Amino acid sequence: MQVYYFTEKGYEKLRKEIDALEKYLKNEIASEIGKAREHGDLRENAEYEAAKNKQANTMVKLGSLQERFQNARVIRKEDLPADIVTLGKTIDIEKVANGDKVTYSILGDGETDIDKGIISYQSPLAKGLMKHKEGDVVTVQLPRGSEQFKILKIAFYEDEN
Question: Where are the beta strands (DSSP E) in 12-144?
Answer without folding.
Answer: 72-74, 89-95, 101-107, 118-120, 137-142
